[in-house]
Design goal:
The complex is a heterodimer of chains A (207) and B (90). Chain A has 207 residues and is an all-alpha fold. Among the domains of chain A are: 41 residues; 98 residues, no CATH class. Chain A is built from 6 helices and no strands. By secondary structure, chain B is mainly alpha-helical. Chain B has one domain. Classes of the chains: A mainly alpha (207), B mainly alpha (90).
Chain lengths: 207, 90
């Protein structure tokens, strides 16, 4: 009886251990499969990241070089503008061409942000403004831009047309039409026969 | 003898379920990582493809250099042909 009891307990223990081992094998093998998938996925990630690193390696140097070139260009243009127009008029020009841009000031002239820019853009058009500021000998640049408007925008076209001997600037109701020529013209001009014919001799004068 | 049976019962009722629960948790965690890794891989491939145009920055750099050189040429010419601003306006 005791032998059967010991044998039964041993069998149950063996079965229990066997179940535990089977569970361990099943889950550990499944985990290994998943970890292998993760490893292969990480290999793809590493390959992609390597490509990114390789392609982005020269970006820093190139962008720095571009920024240096653009900085040099900005320095050049700002210096030239201030040298030729003066700092105050330069701010007026910038504010006239790009309203509000003058408030930021020039990068190489920090004091330019505090300048009360003249209202150049309100007085002149862009072309006149540019010519006036570039050609300082021009009469239009002789007066201060803070003065009265030199160019009448509404009447500017009429003033130019008044220079020509024409009646169009008076806006007549009807202008004379152009002459109509040809066989269907309302006025036909007959051709004279004597045109091109030998000249008639005049009778001799009597003494 | 009784202790042996008690040990067998504990092994079946306590140890085996605990082992199964723990291993299942590890397996589920490993399974949840796989789609995340696949997503990262596809993102890395897309990022690498987006950077294909980075090589064009070299062309941009050359063009910027040429443009600034042209601007410098124009600026130098303007500096020569135009008078400077009056001193009191500076």
């Amino acid at each position: 009886m005791t032998v059967f009891a010991v044998a039964g307990a041993a069998v149950v223990m063996i079965l229990a251990v066997l179940l535990i081992v089977l569970a361990l094998v099943y889950y550990l093998v499944s985990t290994i499969v998943q970890l292998r998938r993760i490893a292969s996925g990480l290999d793809e990630v590493i390959a992609g990241v390597d490509e990114i690193v390789e392609k982005s390696a020269p970006v820093n140097d190139v962008v720095n070089a571009i920024n240096e070139q653009l900085d040099a260009g900005v320095d050049l243009l700002e210096g030239l503008l201030v040298k030729k127009a003066g700092l105050r008029d330069a701010m007026g020009l910038i504010d006239g061409l790009y309203p509000g841009a003058g408030a930021d000031g020039l990068r190489n002239f920090p004091e330019s942000a505090d300048i009360d820019a003249p209202r150049i853009g309100e007085v002149y058009t862009k072309g006149t403004l540019t010519l006036a500021r570039l050609g300082r000998e021009a009469p239009i640049a002789a007066l201060s831009p803070t003065g009265e408007v030199l160019r009448n925008i509404e009447g500017g076209s009429l003033a130019a047309r008044m220079l020509y001997p024409d009646v169009r600037h008076t806006s007549p109701e009807k202008l004379p039409g152009s002459p109509v020529i040809g066989s269907d013209a309302p006025v036909q001009y007959e051709q004279r026969d004597d045109i091109g014919a030998p000249r008639k001799r005049l009778p001799a004068r009597r003494p | 003898m009784t202790l042996w049976w008690i040990g067998n019962i504990v092994l079946l009722v306590v140890v085996l379920p605990i082992v199964v629960v723990l291993l299942r948790g590890v397996l589920e965690a490993a399974k949840s990582i796989v789609p995340t890794v696949n997503g990262i891989a596809s993102t890395a491939r897309a990022g690498s493809k987006d950077l294909d145009a980075a090589a064009l920055l070299l062309t941009t750099k050359d063009q910027v250099t040429q443009t600034v050189a042209g601007v410098a040429g124009y600026g130098g010419s303007l500096d020569v042909i135009l008078d400077d601003a009056e001193e009191e306006q500076r």
